[in-house]
Amino acid sequence: MTPDPVTVAVDAPATSVRSIFREEGFRTIPVISDNRLEGIITRPDMLQISSTKSNLDARSIMQQPRVIATPDMELIHLAREIMKAETVYAPVVESTASMQLVGIVTVADILRKFLYNGIKPVHETLGEMNFSPAITCNYDDLLSHVWKRMDESGYSGLPVMKKEKLIGIITRMDIIRSGHVRVGFDSNTRDAILVEKVMKTPPVVATPQTPVREAGEIILEYDIGRIPVVENPVYVKREPRRAKEADLVGIVSREDILWSYLN
């Protein structure tokens, strides 16, 4: 658990919340009133802020958390609840009666605990896992199309392809930090933004032979939500975990790795 997480008040301007996301890189921010949990704001909620000036406040864009934890919950039970709810976090409150916020638990927190407490995953390597083919985008796609694809698929990051080769990855955080959250959605303007202007390249990758534990360590080390699984990677000499290009096999997320431990 992360104790005393960064929070915002219910009447905080939405533009101020966006600035926190952009500068700090958080995935979620609890919304409070007198330290009582009122809701949660996530990266996708940033799309509701239409410009640099907005009358919206945190209360207007927050949502209710799908899972709420208490300090006495067993970690494995909490992990299963988070995974079943298809979310990546749970705010922790003193009790569901008081709703006084004391911390937040993320999938990364739980995965870190499992990795370094000697728990073994069901699968030995990534190649043994049943992961779906990756939903991708092209380097010359519009950000508007990519964000829509993220919303439709539920994925917060997509591999970027060029001539059928993996060359990068783009996430919601990349779009938020670029400052093009709204500009990129008007595909009829001359200022429409392409993926290649925002994507991260070269991407961190793994292969089907990568041990599940090592993949989890890489995800935690780089603070990323997913890692492309590739074949025939052309590695960067100075950064051997990054590939200039590769044949994409699939993608494995933090949640996929965590399921391997829970199962």
Description:
The chain folds into two domains: 2-115, Roll (CBS-domain), CATH 3.10.580.10; 126-262, CBS-domain. A three-stranded antiparallel beta sheet has the order 1-6-5. A three-stranded mixed beta sheet has the order 2-3-4. It is built from eight helices and eleven strands. Helix 1 crosses helix 6. It is α+β, with helices and mostly antiparallel strands and 263 residues long. The protein has helices at residues 14-24, 58-61, 75-84, 107-115, 143-153, 172-178, 212-222, 254-262, and strands at 2-3, 8-9, 28-33, 36-42, 89-93, 101-106, 137-138, 157-162, 165-171, 226-236, 239-253.
Task: Kindly list the characteristics that best describe this protein.
263 residues; alpha+beta; CBS-domain; 2 domains; 3-stranded antiparallel beta sheet; 3-stranded mixed beta sheet; 11 strands; 27% helix; 26% strand; globular
In terms of topology, how is this protein built?
Layout lengths: L1 E2 L4 E2 L4 H11 L3 E6 L2 E7 L15 H4 L13 H10 L4 E5 L7 E6 H9 L21 E2 L4 H11 L3 E6 L2 E7 H7 L33 H11 L3 E11 L2 E15 H9 L1
Parallel strand pairs: 2-3, 7-8
Antiparallel strand pairs: 1-6, 3-4, 5-6, 8-9, 10-11
